Amino acid sequence: MRISQKPVVFSLLRAAMLAAFSAGSLIAEEPRAPERYCNPLPIPNYAVGKLARDVTKGAPNDGGLWLSERKEQYRELADPTALWFERRIGMDPAEFDSAGNLYVPAATSTPQPVAVSAEATPWVPLNDGEPTFGSSSAPNTAGRRAADNSMMTWWLPAADDAQPVLTTSFASTAEIRAVRVIWRDVGLDTRNGAKPGPFRYRVEAETSPGMWATIGDRSASTEDFLIDYRECVPTTAGRARLVVLGHPEGIQPGVSEFTVFGPVR
């Protein structure tokens, strides 16, 4: 629950996950004044591409108001391939209309500028649907499944691959500004000791043929981020690769999505 204060109007936003997300919003002129329901509901709940999710709560410290998005998945304890899991993905800016109603103009699945202006250049996926190959692959989990904009498919390296690498291409040379890894923790079974934990990895960019530069280093990570979004120093490259360096004990490091972001080309 979060109370958002604007001049004159107070908005109370709540969301709860039951069989489906339940959400609502009340507004009032004072914190304890009689409230009324906000209409239309400010929380969009629909699919953006294939990354469907609900918007709940949260705000970065930028002077504006943001609502954070959650992927509607549940991280099943025994068999994560059977059901869904849930993790926060990102945030979208919220606004107030002339009647004081809080709303989100649009939910997105790509990085958004904090300050929207005519000069702001959107960042888009550079490798969506582009050739993507793993150093090895378990049956029916080819590398391309990690670049298909779907949370229901994933790349899984072979069990004997000591250092799995996933390499993805771009349609043409592009400027990389951020990467996002959405892991699939195959084998997760908390009842039998296979618990969630940090995935350790490195992201490299091919700046010239055969020359790779590290643009993201999570080799010492101690954080359990099933969805890990990282911005990087702008780097021009034709390909990028994900080098898997470590994973929780008892877990196989599947990659549901490996997405590289950059300005519109």
Q: What key attributes describe this structure?
A:
disordered N terminus, 265 residues, 4-stranded antiparallel beta sheet, 2 domains, 46% strand, 7-stranded antiparallel beta sheet, mainly beta, Jelly Rolls
Question: Could you walk me through the main structural features you see in this protein, from its secondary elements to its overall organization?
Answer:
With 265 residues, the chain is mainly beta. It has two domains: 2-103, no CATH class; 123-263, Galactose-binding domain-like (Jelly Rolls, Sandwich). Helices cover 0% and strands 46% of the residues. The strands form four sheets. Strands 11, 12, 13, 14, 15, 16 and 17 form a seven-stranded antiparallel β-sheet that branches. Strands 1-2-3-4 form a four-stranded antiparallel β-sheet, with no helix packed on it. Mean pLDDT is 76; it is low at 1-7, 17-22, 46-63 and 69-88.
State the end-to-end CA separation: 39 Å
Briefly, what CATH class of the largest domain?
Answer: Mainly Beta
Low-pLDDT residue spans: 1-7, 17-22, 46-63, 69-88
Number of helices: 0
How large is the share of residues in beta strands?
A: over 45%
Evaluate the radius of gyration: 20 Å
The average pLDDT value, as a whole number, equals 76
| Largest beta-sheet characterization | 7 strands, antiparallel
CATH homologous superfamily placement of the largest domain? Galactose-binding domain-like
Which percent range fits the helix content?
under 10%
Strand count: 17
* Structural domains: how many: 2
Query: Can you name the CATH architecture of the largest domain?
Result: Sandwich
Q: What is the fold-level CATH name, i.e. the topology of the largest domain?
A: Jelly Rolls
SSE string, helices as H and strands as E? EEEEEEEEEEEEEEEEE
Overall structural class, as computed from helix and strand content, comes to: mainly beta
Report the principal-axis shape.
globular
